[in-house]
Amino acid sequence: MNAENTLCIVVDIQERLQPVLFEAEYAAERSRIMIQGLQALGVPLVLTEQYPKGLGKTIPSVQLLLKDVPVFEKTQFSALIPEVKAVLQEKNIRNVILVGVEAHVCMLQTVRDIRALGLEVYVPFDCTTSRNPANKENALQQMRGLGAVVSNTESILFTLLGDAKHPAFKTVSKLIQ
Predict the structure, then answer these.
(1) Domain Isochorismatase-like, which positions (predicted)?
(2) Distances from the Cα of 71 to the Cαs of 4, 13, 52, 56, 158, in angstroms?
(3) Are 151 and 122 in contact (CB under 8 A)?
């Protein structure tokens, strides 16, 4: 996994979902750290929004970080919509990092669909949640069963860094403190 063969999909971190999610603020903050770290490492990102007319736009604290990132609206639960699939193919992506909500619906279905393409999927457990914490835990188990790597923000960022001599090391280190 490196910046050239990896893409991050930010899945549905939206205004009307946040109030009903378990530990939503924590997951959103961890997602912000992940996004900033990936940007420092040069990893491309895309953003999906599930039916924004009903669920609102991406929350402002995340949206601020993603000003120049493609935003794709969707109604299907999986984030692997044609537009995202086109980005995966165009950039020759082999690894996908998923952050967002809900773990047991959109995230799980996205893992399933990306794994079906033969790509590796990394899900930082601290960057996802569900309304019910039991649903999140069950989803993470199912993701592992599908072959996804359930990890955490720090591990994924340091895997991408690979070496303390990496030019982004200090930036990433400051983010995770």
Answers:
(1) 6-154
(2) 20, 12, 11, 13, 27
(3) yes
Q: What is the pLDDT of residues 61-120, one digit of tens each?
A: 999 999 999 999 999 999 999 999 999 999 999 999 999 999 999 999 999 999 999 999
Active site residues: 12, 74, 106
- Cα–Cα distance, 50 to 11 (Å, whole number): 8
Residue 30 CA: distances (Å) to CA of 26, 52, 125, 154: 6, 22, 10, 10
Looking up tokens 């109604």 gives 75
26, amino acid identity: Y
Q: Exposed/middle/buried for 96, CB within 10 Å: 0-12, 13-18, 19+?
A: buried
Q: List, in order of start, the domains of the chain with CATH numbers.
A: 6-176 (3.40.50.850)
Amino acid code (one letter) for 25:
E
Q: Determine if the pTM surpasses 0.70.
A: yes
The single-letter code of the amino acid at 1 is: M
Instruction: Give the burial string for 100-121 (b: 16+ CB within 10 Å, else e).
Output: bbbbbbbbbbbbbbbbeeebbb
